[in-house]
Specification:
alpha+beta, 5 strands
């Protein structure tokens, strides 16, 4: 299964996908069961500079639910560091959703729906 992820800071529109990418690479479970790649992406209308997208190929042992746990941990770490809120956009098989803020439960529900698709 292939998933595309974009992360943008809510306040200033800065791309923070590389931060999540680094978190995924450092996570033992994600590294073992998923292959993340950081790819260049086209900047949105309110974005300047370099923009990236995470391409994540998941094995059967690493479901979208497991990805939700990793994203929730990353978001919690950012919140503890008083980092700006972000919008996480996930795309699978042409279906896309975006979550803004720090609601890990909402991310998990969307990822569960994608996993079931």
């Amino acid at each position: 299964m292939q998933i595309l992820i974009r992360c943008v800071a809510e306040k200033d529109g800065d791309d923070v996908s590389s931060e999540l990418f680094d978190w995924l690479v450092d996570d033992t479970s994600a590294r073992k069961h998923a292959t993340p790649k950081l790819l260049p992406d086209t900047p949105g209308p309110n974005q300047l500079g370099t923009v990236a997208i995470i391409q994540l190929v998941l094995s059967g042992a690493f479901s979208a639910t497991s990805l939700g746990v990793v994203i929730a941990q990353w978001r919690e770490q950012r919140r503890a560091a008083a980092a700006p809120k972000i919008t996480v956009t996930v795309e699978k098989d042409g279906k896309q959703f975006a979550v803004t803020g720090s609601d890990a439960g909402e991310i998990q529900r969307w990822l569960d729906d994608l996993d079931a698709a």
